[in-house]
Amino acid sequence: MKVYIDGKFYAEGEAKISVFDHGLLYGDGIFEGIRAYNGRVFRLKEHIERLYYSAKAILLTIPMTPAEIAKAVLDTCRENNLREGYIRLVVTRGVGTLGLNPNRCKNPSIIVIVGKIQLYPEEMYKNGMEIVTVPTTRNLVNAVNPAIKSLNYLNNILAKIEANIAGVEEAIMLNSEGFVAECTGDNIFIVKGRQLLTPPLSAGALYGITRGVVMDMGRDTGLQVGEPNLTRYDLFNADECFLTGTGAELIPVVKIDGRQIGTGEPGAVTRSLIEGYRSLTQSSGEPI
Ligand code: PXG
Question: Do residue 127 and residue 110 come from a single domain?
Fold first, then answer.
């Protein structure tokens, strides 16, 4: 695989970033996880828009236009003959001194890596997954807002480790008020009657691209889509529950903290949204 760094392609072994890059020293940077399906990059415009939102929030000036970033992503796919797979777009603060002040970092670096994506086991898409709530709470929105897709993922990683310890693949994270925020790398939805609900960004959720697509599909199919604060009680008593993410797509959840959700099998609304999402990913996107 060839890796794009600041306008040039490098073989995997040669694709290197300075140890003085503040992305490494302080996790000072931002990223996007994007998918390509069937020779097209899915929701590329939305991912790049979110990248600029993250950059705005951390006062990082991306030294390229959105159109140039899109071209770099598509060029990297072409260079690697990628038709199907995962694209990691990273912008670091750049090389600076050992002090944390970013004013010494003159040149942010732009990196595009393509590869394969590890989905959850296929069996879980069919039968649903079990998840638990973990002790690590979501970062405060007024500290490092979880809406920023920053290179600081320790909050999520700690929760992921706690999920692993509990023997499950994903974890629900609550915010400091006890409301559901999201999972470590996925947004969470519930279905209750004709309502399709997901926590608001203010609860500590990422502005998920898949989340947005699913909310649109929900509206199109006549569901009442809402973003209220949700508690664990709301999740336990939902008819259906599922997670969304670029990597995971949509995956049904059938057990939370030992409580069976709905019938204990993936629900009808979830299954039809999975179908709808799969056909969208196959039929739309920016041609490579
Ligand atoms: N919340 C968090 C914290 C995320 O990191 C999502 C929600 C879903 O957002 P999108 O925009 O993808 O619908 C994410 C995205 C991985 C992986 O390697 C994680 C994500 C995306 C792709 C791969 O685990 N997380």
Answer: no
Both 110 and 126 in one domain: the answer is no
Binding-site residues, ligand 1, Cβ < 6 A: 33, 156, 182, 185-187, 206, 208-211, 244-247
- Asked if 233 contacts 223 with a C-beta cutoff of 8 angstroms, the reply is no
Residue 45 annotated as catalytic: no
Strand partners, 112: 4, 89
Choose the residue to mutate in 145, 187, 280 for probing ligand 1, maximizing ligand atoms within 8 Å of C-beta.
187
Separation CA 41–CA 83 (nearest Å): 8
**pLDDT tens column, 191-222:** 999 999 999 999 999 999 999 999 999 999 99
**Using the 8-state DSSP alphabet, how is residue 14 labeled?**
G
Distance 247 CA to ligand 1 centre (A): 7
Tell whether 175 and 94 lie within a shared domain. no
The total of structural domains in the chain comes to 2
Kindly report the average pLDDT of the chain as a whole number.
97
Q: What is the pLDDT of residues 93-152, one digit of tens each?
A: 999 999 999 999 999 999 999 998 877 999 999 999 999 999 999 999 999 999 999 999
